[in-house]
Amino acid sequence: xxxxxxxxxxxxxxILAGYSHEESMEICYSAQFxxxxxxxxxxxxxxxxxxxxxxxxxxxxxxxxxxxxLQEITRIWASFHFLPKDLYAKKKWRPKVYMNKYRLICGxxxxxxxxxVELAKGKPLQNVGIAMHVLADTWAHAYYAGTPSLVxxxxxxxxxxxxxxxxxxxxxxxxxxxxxxxxxxLDKHIFTNSLYxxxxxxxxxxxxxxxxxxxDYSFAKYRFYPAWGDYGDIVKDNPSxxxxxxxxxxxxxxxxxxxxxxxxxxxYHVPEVAPYRKRIDQILRKRQIIACDDWKAFGEExxxxxxxxxxxxxxxxxxxxxxxxxxxxxxxxKFIDGAIAHKAMVSNEISSSGSFLAGFVQVKIHDKISKS
Length: 372
Description:
This protein is α+β, with helices and mostly antiparallel strands. The chain contains 14 helices and eight strands. Strands 2-1-5-6 form a four-stranded antiparallel β-sheet. A two-stranded parallel ribbon has the order 3-4. Strand 1 (160-165) and strand 2 form a beta hairpin. The longest helix is centred in the last third of the chain and has 22 residues, at 331-352.
């Protein structure tokens, strides 16, 4: 997903869940910051590097692909962007080394997602935002794994976009190119994806690189043929999935605010969302590279307040200038502690399943040590 959903749509969901404008701004900022909190950023403010929730392209280019480097990559991407659907999934006639990767395939409504939401209950709003980012990505990034793997994340070259054609639908072949600096051409169905690499552990085979930004566009409905599925076809319906993601965020945040006694999987019938279903559906299905303006307008109508644009440096000075013993009380200090706790929980769950793809490390949470 992109800033349109992680920032503005998350704000809308928080408002509908009953949070104030100020609270919703903290939640949506934290959700978007998950895509920004790299080691490079953390080093610039002298914060614990173990709190990294993403990796920049330049960092990825220099990333090690030995066991230590791959564990670091997996800890970040499986924890924050490709939360595993079933760490105990079974598939016949596959060796353990394959199954460890197969079990990292992302998907919604997992037991791990429930644990994540429960972990955010009673915690600072930064934890809520982190959880909402990951929850939303379980829908957008379904069918891909947060570890470099050709046998899992590889696909055939055949992708077809499914578009409306009168009262029905038609499939149009998608063409890929490998120029990251060239915008996707929605009219010509030309998209950018990662360059094919036959190396199983190549960074090019991380996540949905072979599908480009298709999983990040709410309007996209497409057919593709993944390696993990033995190259059988899968139809990914983003408009439907994104709507469920939005409803599930509202439901989850109501639970976190203690307005709901229980949090259950596969629940999308949220009364607070129902009156706006048509409006939300229009935003989701509009063919555009990014939908920030539409979500922002909707959010400001809901709250009657102005939504500030995202600024990566908004809380930087506060963290840098405060005394060391008070850093944990700053906005970024709370985000850092929330990110480390979340990463530790997910890494521990992966390790407990018998896989060491996410490793086992010690991480520093400001003034104390925690193992993950």
